[in-house]
Known about the structure:
Blueprint: H1 2-19, H2 24-45, E1 50-51, E2 54-55, H3 56-69, H4 72-121, H5 128-153, H6 157-177, H7 187-211
Antiparallel strand pairs: 1-2
Helix pairs in contact: 2-3, 2-4, 2-6, 3-4, 4-5, 4-6, 5-6
Amino acid sequence: MKWITSVIILSFTLGLVAKTTMSYRERKKQLDGKITLVLDIKEQLKLEPETGKTSIESIRTQVEETYRAGNRVEIEKTLSLAEGDLLVTQRKLCFPMEESANGLYQKAMGQWILLEGEDKSGAKTLEWDTKEKIQRYLLMAKSEKDHAKEYFLSGNYQLSLHTYKRSLVYSLMSLRSQKAEIPEEYQLADSVWVQPIWMGLHKQKQTSIQEN
């Protein structure tokens, strides 16, 4: 546990050094983006990332209230505390995200193995472009979850979370391409993260067909 604490402290310290050249407005903008990602993951996957007794919502509220008050010293103090709390929250959230990304990828891969077997046996016929699309999404899902693990080990928890999310999106895209059932625990994430992408892709395809 000591080395974990040391890594977090080192990451936070390096972050503070970098932030000495950054205005508090820029720091708040960065913090807002990180909080938005954590809340997005929490809401769509029904996860509850907490840091001690401080919820991510409390962190956001405290920052907003202090920022509106306009006292620069208090703003910078609050930002520093919030950045530290958020770093811990992000790290904690990476663990269930890794589990989710691995689990959903395995689910999508398992479905593909079954579907490919049916195609080879003649029980079901798949178009070449459909098979290519399924395999491409699976490859991207695996690549993203592997990169997310690397980012986590390097201490970049923000990028790790963002990349785990992309892995989940690609696994869901693969399941959709297979016309497989979306697991219940991912149906909200599928409707919020994937449905707009899916509709956009199919709209482009339909437009292309009509033009030709």
